[in-house]
């Protein structure tokens, strides 16, 4: 996994906050996937549960970057700025994504078939969008926002919000993303379509988080999702 600056092609960015119970399993699974010419960057957003110390003790070659600001969106931007690879992979630290899908994410970019590739829960299924009223509302809201995007840009994508995705680094930086929190993913999708970039999806199953609690409170964020969806449907 360790590579020199000249060899790094893929930078795997893991935004974290209080994921000590799961993040090492995620990193180990990434290593076991044998991603060639890659690096792992852990971007920590002020964890208080020992996340950073546990990763430092367990792994020698993970680059650790500490956020000064708050929020997943800020963490993703910081990870992109620090990345040495020309392809960025974003994967959550809670164990909900399958690292063996990483190769499927970046191959279409390497083959010049796409500029961004999203792991689609609509195509691969999800354990986090079914089973109770909160999950139902998340799924319904996500589908509604997806329909807005599809008809605005004349595409037929199934997942604008999944955090598991690959994108060319230079395009990520050109998009000039503003969102501080998890709304950055749908901002990324809408802005990429505005600029005419190619988005491809691969089926990827979303598993229930391995430990801890979700950082997303639907009650607190639903308005921001609707507001930013409308905003970025018409604004680059």
Write up what this structure looks like:
By secondary structure, this protein is of the alpha/beta class. The protein has one domain (about 10-235): Spore Coat Polysaccharide Biosynthesis Protein SpsA, Chain A. It is about 40% helix and about 15% strand. It has helices at about 25-30, 50-60, 70-80, 100-110, 120-125, 135-155, 170-175, 185-195, 220-235, and strands at about 10-15, 40-45, 65, 85-90, 115-120, 165-170, 200-205. Strands 3-2-1-4-6-5-7 form a 7-stranded mixed β-sheet, sandwiched between helices. Helix 1 (about 25-30) links the parallel strand 1 (about 10-15) and strand 2. Helix 6 (about 135-155) runs parallel beside helix 9 and helix 8 (about 185-195) runs parallel beside helix 9 (about 220-235). It is globular, with a radius of gyration of 17 Å. The protein starts with 9 loop residues before the first strand and ends with a helix. The model has no long low-confidence stretch (mean pLDDT about 95).
